[in-house]
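Protocol step 4 of 5: obtain the predicted structure for the target chain.
Materials: sequence only (see below). No template structures provided, no constraints applied. The aim of this step is simply to have a reference model before the mutagenesis design in step 5. Sequence pasted as it appears in the construct record:
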Amino acid sequence: MPPSTDRDIFEDLHIFEMANNHQGSVAHGLRIVEQAARLARKHRIRAAVKLQFRELDSFIHPKARGRDDIKHIPRFESTRLAESEFRQLVEAIRQAGLLAVV
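Step 4 output (structure tokens):
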């Protein structure tokens, strides 16, 4: 058998996309992780949870902050997680036996 390559990590990998569906709540994000882990165990699949980290202070132009006439601004601002909260979700993903994709 040839040696393992970095690409092997993607073989038979199923990805649960969380994005900002945590709604800015670590507790809700942890419930999503628990459900993803439960499904991965039930179906015996290799799985990862994909998160999106946005540094909103530089991602959103200063003139656009707080505006509700630009479709995505309110959603991004309302689902902001602190870096420590984001790390908490990543750690929960790993402890659940899943891969974290950031």
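Step 4 remarks: The mean pLDDT is 87. Strands lie at 13-19, 46-51, 99-101.
Proceed to step 5.
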